[in-house]
Each structure stands twice: as C-alpha cells, then as structure tokens.
Write a structure and sequence with these properties.
mainly alpha
Length: 65
Amino acid sequence: MTQATSTETRDLIIESAYACFRKHGLLKTTIVDIAKMANVSRSTIYEYFRDKGEILEACAEQASE
C-alpha cells in the first residue's frame, strides 16, 4: 500500500470537512468529526491546519475555484 501524498491527504481532509459541515453544521462540527470522516488522526489534521477556522477557509477557497 502506498503512502498518500500530502496534497491528497490535505484534499481528503477538506472533502471530509465539507461532508461534516453539511451533516452537523459549521458550529457543531469538531476536528474529531473531520478526523473520523477522513479516517486520519487528530494530529494528522493539525499537521495540515492550525484550527477549524483554517479548514473552513480552505473549504471556501476550494469551493471558489
């Protein structure tokens, strides 16, 4: 099994965050929810993003592309 590239992992986190935001709403979604959805650890999320706000910004950037 090959290791996912950092870009793939980042994209997976963003896609998972989208799904969580749709399901739970922006305020109720937690980093733990996103980590579970992406099937990664919380520490992996924090390697890519400082906090939930930064994930939300990345989602918005990707949506506007």
